[in-house]
Design a protein that fits this description.
The complex is a heterodimer of chains A (321) and B (473). Chain A is 64% helix and 4% strand. Chain A has 321 residues and is mainly α. In chain A, strand 1 and strand 2 form a beta hairpin. Chain A starts with a helix and ends in a 9-residue tail after the last helix. About 7% of the residues of chain A have low confidence. Chain B starts with a helix and ends with a helix. In chain B, a hairpin with a 2-residue loop joins strand 5 and strand 6. The longest helix of chain B is centred in the middle third of the chain and has 62 residues. In chain B, helix 3 runs antiparallel to helix 11. The interface between A and B is large, with 61 and 70 residues.
Chain lengths: 321, 473
């Protein structure tokens, strides 16, 4: 076989260039700590990493949403708790004043003042706000839920928030549901998810014969106390029981939503960790491996250089002098 | 026997040795000349001539019959073809790397993140529909999304323009190459008629041919006079004997085979209708055209489709809603008529640009807390809208990135493989045609010895003549 100088030089140049190319790649990996620096390094891995990044960003948003929902729901819970407490107090008052034996006109008049206070307290709890948003107004968050004379002015809007991919949760209890035992229309948690039915909120008309309303009952109690209508006081007794039961069942509902939230936040965080591990596997360089490869490559490079030296240097001319 | 003939024999020996030494020198001097083929002096012994009274039995020294190139045509052809494929991959490599850079968001922000940010800002808005700061954020992230679509579109376009300007250079190079090939054909023929051996012109012509090969798939055949005739595969003649075709580029409207608007069409007098853009295969020009008309066009079409679908899907939901200022049927993005060019035309609607309150969040009027529309827009991110209902926007975009990565990775692989093949073939060609300095040095010594000895022959003949002349004294 004829071997020419040119072949010699080409071989030397090539092996040096190849070795340098590999070293540069390793060097780049070592400096970015990543083995995936361009999509062509691992196209499917790159797409997977993008997907997981999106998941992570979305998960973070879902956790934020869930935290917000938790804030709304626990404030709702507090307000309901307050209302529940004042209903108990109202019932105690009604119980105490229901018989002529334990009460007289002056106690009733005095205690009517307290009922008035309870009423104001109930209106205040019904108009509880977070920032500038009324908790119990449904979608009409900028309008107080309850007017001073006890009328509900909100709607039945359920504010849904996405707490996990495609999982929505209502973060509010519309006032008509909270303050009435038998709202003609109770909003459903899933309604928002029915495709295309971005439904008008139902009007809040309630049929009067079945329904009991907190504000009305408090007003009734007060009027009965003022007028000495013992029969009227007694009828409120049972109704306060119903109302209290209603509020308690709502608190249970809110409580279970909060519990669900905590669960979903936990799982979102777990998912974030899992996908971080996965994408790290895909894109992070194993430093031990990179560095040992770099050392190996350096040896290869040195031997390419030194063998080139021996290959290139001598020619016949060196020996003819 | 005549003494003079012995002197002539010595002189012929001197000539032959000197020619061999000159050729070895030529070889050594050209050891690094691109495309040089080593040459060898062909010498033969001169047949004895009959002289009166003597049978023709004594030889008359060497005769230089020719100076030959040592080459292997088939090997040369293989090198040309391998070099063509290598050049094609090499040019594609540059454009594909540029394209990959456009879409590389492994270490930075890109459309993937902006899509998420856009939909997440709608989720934020659904948490607080009446908050102006959040509305502002929604509009800003939508603007960022729009700008990134424009950026991608423009940068892909820049890659395209880069390809076009390289094509322009290649075409003028090709024109000068075809011209010189035709000229060399003529020169070589004339030289051969006059009996010379135009080795260095032959080298030059092979070198020109190799360069022509690197631009596109062509075939070469020799005619009976030894001229090189070159045909473009699928098109027609490029060079035949002393005739050569002209190539040019011209900006023309888009066509249905993926050539973008205003990009160069390749024209040639070699083809009946003049345009050979889609007939040319392989090599530098074929490779660049493939990237431009297939890879880039596909990527742009998919971006357009995505931009169009985002506009359409978001608008559809947004129109159902009521804005903070009580309007309905408001567009969020400017409606687009066609998918073609959507990534370029994508923009926010004038309503949303002029007022933050035009962003609809509610499904019913006069309900500031109603977040159903905002939430529904946020959900679009997970809707399988693209690819006949198979992929979400994220899937779609990620698959563009993956495809760009695959194209680049595959080409890089082909390039390194082809480089290996080319190296191997070049080495084989070198084995046949390359100059070995050691070999030429030994030849120098060998012929120097012969030269010395031939000189000695003349000296001896001279002395013999002197001896004879001295006989009388």
């Amino acid at each position: 076989m004829r071997v020419t100088e040119r072949t010699n030089f080409d071989v030397a140049r090539d092996s040096i260039a190849r070795s340098k190319g590999r070293m540069e790649k390793l060097q780049f990996q070592a400096s970015t700590l990543k083995k995936l620096n361009a999509p062509s390094d691992d196209p499917t891995g790159a797409a997977k990493i993008m997907e997981m990044r999106t998941d992570k960003v979305n998960n973070d948003q879902f956790v934020t949403n869930a935290k917000l929902a938790e804030m709304f729901l626990s404030n709702t819970d507090h307000a309901l708790g307050e209302i529940g407490d004042l209903l108990i107090r109202a019932k105690e008052i009604a119980l105490g004043q229901a018989s002529g034996a334990s009460s007289n006109e002056s106690t009733r008049l005095g205690i009517a003042e307290e009922v008035e206070q309870l009423y104001q307290q109930a209106v205040a709890a019904g108009n509880r706000r977070i920032g500038d948003r009324y908790l119990f107004s449904g979608y009409k968050v900028h309008t107080p839920a309850i007017t001073p004379d006890g009328n509900y002015t909100g709607d039945d809007g359920q504010i849904m928030t996405e707490i996990a991919k495609d999982v929505f949760l209502a973060i509010n209890i519309p006032g008509h549901e909270a303050f009435n035992t038998n709202p003609s229309d109770s909003a459903d948690i899933n309604r928002m998810q029915e495709q295309g039915t971005l439904r008008e909120p139902a009007s809040t008309q309630v049929s009067p014969d079945q329904n009991i309303n907190i504000f009305n009952e408090l007003k009734n109690l007060r009027i009965s106390l003022l007028t000495g209508d013992l029969e009227g006081i007694r009828t409120t007794l049972e109704r306060f029981d119903d109302l209290h039961g209603q509020v308690m069942s709502l608190r249970a509902k809110v409580g279970s939503r909060i519990q669900g939230l905590v669960g979903s936040m936990d799982s979102a965080e777990r998912q974030t960790i899992t996908s971080a591990t996965l994408s790290s596997n895909l894109e992070d360089a194993d430093m031990a491996e990179v560095l040992s490869n770099l050392a190996k490559e350096e040896t290869v490079f040195r031997s390419a250089l030194s063998s080139s030296k021996h290959l290139i240097q001598p020619t016949l001319l060196d020996f003819l002098k | 026997m005549r003494f003079a003939s012995t002197t002539v024999t010595g002189t012929a020996g001197l000539h032959a040795s000197r020619a061999a030494i000159a050729t070895a020198g030529h070889n050594i001097a050209n050891a690094n000349t691109e495309g040089f083929t080593r040459q060898r002096v062909e010498q033969e012994s001169y047949a004895p001539a009959a002289t009166p009274g003597q049978k023709p039995i004594i030889g008359q020294g060497p005769l230089i019959s020719n100076v030959n190139r040592i080459n292997d045509q088939y090997l040369d052809k293989q090198v040309r073809v391998a070099h063509r494929d290598f050049s094609g991959f090499e040019d594609r490599e540059m454009s594909l790397k540029q394209l990959e850079d456009v879409f590389n968001e492994m270490n930075g922000d890109g459309l993937n993140r902006l899509v998420s940010r856009f939909f997440n800002d709608f989720r934020k808005l659904s948490n607080d529909p009446s908050n102006t700061a959040v509305r502002q954020a929604v509009r800003e992230s939508a603007k960022a999304l729009v700008n990134d679509f424009h950026r991608l579109r423009n940068q892909v376009d820049d890659v395209r323009k880069h390809i076009d300007s390289r094509m322009e250079g290649y075409v003028s190079e090709l024109n000068s190459l075809t011209k010189s090939l035709a000229e060399l054909n003529v020169k070589i023929k004339m030289n051969q008629i006059s009996g010379a051996s135009p080795n260095d012109l032959l080298d030059q012509r092979d070198q020109v041919l190799k360069k022509i090969y690197s631009f596109m798939e062509v075939n070469m055949f020799r005619d009976e006079s030894g001229s090189y005739n070159v045909d473009i595969v699928n098109v027609g003649p490029m060079v035949s004997s002393s005739n050569f075709e002209k190539f040019s580029v011209a900006r023309t409207p888009a066509d249905d085979q993926g050539k973008p608007e205003n990009a160069f069409d390749l024209k040639s007098s070699a083809s009946a209708n003049g345009v050979i853009t889609h007939a040319v295969r392989g090599g530098r020009i074929g490779g660049l055209l493939e990237v431009r008309d297939k890879t880039l066009s596909t990527v742009l079409a998919r971006l357009d489709e995505m931009a169009y679908s985002i506009t359409d899907a978001v608008n559809q939901v947004h129109q159902q809603g009521y804005s903070a200022d009580g309007r309905t049927k408001v567009d969020f993005f400017k409606p687009l008529d066609t998918i073609q060019g959507a990534a370029q035309k994508l923009d926010l609607s004038d309503d949303v640009m002029s007022s933050l309150h035009a962003i609809a969040t509610a499904a019913v009027p006069d309900a500031p807390g109603d977040n159903r529309i905002a939430a529904a827009i946020g959900r679009i991110q997970h809707d399988r809208i693209m690819g006949d209902g198979h992929s979400t926007f994220d899937d779609w975009y990620n698959s563009i990135i993956a495809d760009v990565g695959v194209a680049s990775a595959r080409n890089a692989e082909n390039l390194s493989q082809q480089k290996g093949i080319l190296n191997q073939l070049t080495k084989m060609r070198e084995q046949v045609s390359g100059v070995s300095i050691d070999e030429e040095t030994t030849k120098l010594l060998q012929f120097q010895h012969a030269f010395d000895a031939s000189a000695k022959v003349i000296q001896v003949a001279d002395e013999m003549l002197k001896t004879v002349l001295d006989l009388k004294r």
